[in-house]
Amino acid sequence: MARVLVTGASGFVAGHCVDELLSHGYTVRGTVRTRRPDSRIEQVEADLTDDRGWVEAVAGCDAVLHVASPFPAGPPRDERELTGPAVDGTLRVLRAAAGAGVRRVVLTSSIAAITAGRPRGDDRVRTEADWSDVDKSSAYPRSKTLAERAAWRFAEEHPSLELVALNPGMVLGPIQHPSAATSVAVIGRLLNREMPAVPNLGFATVDVRDVATAHRLALETPGAAGNRYVLAGENVWFPEMAAILAEEFNPRGHRVPTGRLPYWLMWTLARFDRTMRIGLEFANRPENVTAEKAVRDLGWRQRPVRDSLVDTAESLLAHGLASRPKVSPAPSAGRRPQPEPRS
To answer: For 3-172+207-232, which CATH class?
Structure first.
């Protein structure tokens, strides 16, 4: 079976990609900043900001999943903290892959490279044909857009290298170790009632396990080369997410807030809360995209949003990143079992 390099193998999305590949018989090598015990895969120390280690990392690999990328908890003080590692790091990986004769690279981009910078009121459904306006985007979407653009230019100059870009939405789902990804940290804040109320933010969501499946399918589908794929469902508002969590966890003793946070108060809190500051860009604006192309070309499927939210919360509790209630919980009705998505 093919050997696949997964960059940033200890990360949220990358860790699930590793599991997905191993469960389908692939040999996996992962880049890490510091080795940690994991007998399932070979580990190579490499950093996106440094040339060292990348030649060794790609040697003998048939394909690369380039998943590693910085994701901030708040707006960076200098956007070069994001754009530099994102763009230069992507080109580092691609140069090493091309030099080693790697056949295919699957790049983990984001719908932030598709939906950002749009004017208010422009809520049309975005597809893979759309690109974010970097001149009107904040630091994170700008970094993802510039990195993906750079990757496609590199692929045009190196036709022997097949490139596939995957553009996930807001990634939810279970964490694998006590280091929550930024995208799921808000679920912990809701469980811990760290928010006085819920801001009206809209995101197109996707489960991390389904993102991992899409990475494998992008490796295995011959016609995927040269394509971008949106990986996200319909827009979900934060108050809707909070209502699902409250329905599931409040009977267990939690006090998940469900009241709406007015925009004026969100704006005020954002002056002191860097995470809230990121959310201002999404306030009262739906994020509308379609994953029809991934469904059609890759045979990809998504699991229900409720399952992703509840599994996210359960994993945060299990890893001690959300507080368990000190009161005696009432019996919970629980969820109806859902079938696992099949690829």
So the answer is: alpha beta
